[in-house]
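Appendix B.2, paired examples.
Example (i):
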Amino acid sequence: LVSSLSLLLGTTITISSNHWMMAWTGLEINTLAIIPLISKSHHPRAIEATIKYFLVQAAASTLVLFSSMTNAWSTGQWDITQLHHPTSSLLLTTAIAMKLGLVPFHFWFPEVLQGSSMATALLLSTMMKFPPITILFLTSNSLNSTLLVTMAIASAALGGWMGLNQTQTRKILAFSSISHLGWMTIIIIYNPKLTLLTFYLYSVLTATVFLTLNTTNTLKLSTMMTSWTKTPALNTTLMLTLLSLAGLPPLTGFLPKWLIIQELTKQEMTMAAITIAMLSLLGLFFYLRLAYYSTITLPPNSTNHMKQWHTNKPASTSIA
């Protein structure tokens, strides 16, 4: 309960603050609140994930503080929106990329998610990304566009490539998160509201996937292949949600991608739009594989589960 309240408090402080010190305080409260949740199971893997998470977040918070102090030193301003010093801007972009898990600071994210429970992984993928994205939103008018676009395209590429050969559902969702962050950061300078729209839709869809996998207790693809025997209706919903995350046209997940491509074309960044659209096909491949596993493909061996939606008929007596 204390951790949950602290998470809400940290997020609220960061997203509602104008002063750098308050924003930094909120980020620190968030980090300290999520640590007990990651390490709750006392498994060596969970402890390793906790240490990795803490070290990365502590380093990123230090950079945020250093960036704001440098900016205050040169401009005399502690206001978040007044980030005019170029070195401060660069340092802040690096710090937020570390906090979010953007390429090339992405290494910790899949490992931490793999060491966490499904509920904690959901928090790390959605709620914990909200404060850093808010800081990017507030400072978007003074960020380095070339650096952000490069990191965004690299994130979309790596998220797609690395997701292809994973069998653990949490790692697949971690790389899915990295590629979605690519879509969010490529547009943040030109149309920050689109970034927020993408983030909100991504959060809702990811929450649906994580909660479904948590309900069916699906940690690996092999388990997913048999979960349709337990909850067929839930698995159908999961398939639609996964296809929406992939960004297939009739579904909701297509909307932010369409708008982002449109905005990039308006900004005469046609090559960037084409590149990121092509890279999303990599993500589509593993989402389709997940969707197949959840509903369409039957496992090669017969399942040991009773098909729970069948009515129990009395065994017919054989006539000799």
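Example (ii):
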Amino acid sequence: QAPESFPPLWNEEAVRVLEGQMKGIQGHCNSCYMDAALFSLFSCTSVLDSMLFMPFPLCDRNVQGILRDEIVNPLRRTGFVRAGSVMRLREQLTDKGRCSSFTNAEKDPEEFLNLIMQQILGIEPLLKLQSGGQEQDCYCYQIFMDTQEDLVVPTVQQLVERSFLSSELKLVEIPSCFIIQMPRFGKEYKMFSKIIPSLELDITDLLLDSPRECCLCGDVATLECL
């Protein structure tokens, strides 16, 4: 355990701490969905550190303590988290979520994020989306799309844009944190064998009523052709 706080890892320090054997979050008993989500949310970014320090009783103190002291801080300090620490978090989620399968079954990351962010830690939704004139709040966005013949090794930028287009979605506002779940179809079939991470994400075309340039004359656009 690491009761003191450690900042997220950056640049050369991230490579030094996280690269090599016995690094990352140790998997156990179908924990991969949670391990990958926790690593993505906390190893190299502080944007969601409010989850670790929200005042009690607005959040569950036991879950927050395990998340901060047994998972996030050891990950940032040594680059390694034991499977037992994640299992203790899973046991707490089982009790709070009234779902026994959190300790042994593989689940969808969105279910885990919704439970820990909304029901346990009480965080406001991170995303506001609009589709067909209706707004919806959510904590993460999962990419859904049909098979794309021209995309062999896509970037995250391409997947997000095409997914928003096919679902007729727009971002109501610029999100403080944009959690994106890549498309996945189990062990037997995967739509893409590889996806290239986009180190920056341009959401200009995804924003609702955002001023944009006309592709013909260069002035402010007044019409959009999907």
